Amino acid sequence: MRSRTVKYASKPRGTLVVLFVITPLMNTHLMNRRPKVPVLPGAEPYRHEGGEVGVLLCHGFTGSPQSLRPWAEYLAERGLTVSLPLLPGHGTRWEDMQLTGWQDWYAELDRELRALRDRCTQVFVFGLSMGAALAMRLAAKHGDEISGLVLVNPANKVHGPAAYALPVLRHLVPSVKGIISDIAKEGGVEIGYSRVPLHAAHSMRNLYALVDGELPQVTQPMLLLHSPQDHVVPPADSARILSRVSSTDVTESLLEQSYHVATLDHDADRIFEESYAFLGRLAPAVGKKSGVGHVDQQEGTATGG
Prior knowledge:
Oligomer: single chain
Shape: globular
Strand content: 15-25%
CATH architecture: 3-Layer(aba) Sandwich
Number of helices: 8
Strand order of the largest sheet: 1-11-10-7-6-4-5-3-12
Radius of gyration: 18 Å
CATH class: Alpha Beta
């Protein structure tokens, strides 16, 4: 029998659908070769060598590890081995994403997962938005190698007119204005791109369709946290995911005080605490800190293209 726990404080508010504002940029033709581009300050990947339980964290589309960095550091401080990579094409300039697609993003996470599996006895995968979709694909493909999933405002579909226009529009307009720092907390800032590269957005759309078909293959324990008021991903995406996965151990938690980037918002501490409790329930080694951990904050450059 499938067990599902739902936590909420009040009635969810209405669904908000994102509409892209089309504003073409000049001189944005793609180049076959690009020089190395500096990574935006704060967008660097993060890794920590801890104990025998590992966590792979996956950031979202046009975002960067910065959106999950406080979460990663919280877990590292509690003795876990943590990997928070920078996805290809992210963390530099939006033009670099035009030369990448979901296969590149997934391949990077797949490599990180395999490295964690070589190092740890149990591995969990956490994801925000598109990062949650990539996490679910990892779960569908790797099965028992992943001990559990924690998903925050997971994305399942591109909504609105843009979804139907993308196949053609991406050949006419290189990018459109996007939404960044969808955070209720005053002063909250997300490091990412303010424009949406349409070739990459089309690839993301294809990813969502692929993952939606693979959801029945997801069987791992799952903690899904989502915001009723999210200006990027509507609550319908979470409902769709919960209705299609085969997981029997599922906990749904509503983030009433936060918008899309909830990991940097008012409910951040709650996300950290609930995810750590989730780990503790499924991994007996959690709470047993290793000796001396090593933090690897990679700075430098990323290659565009």
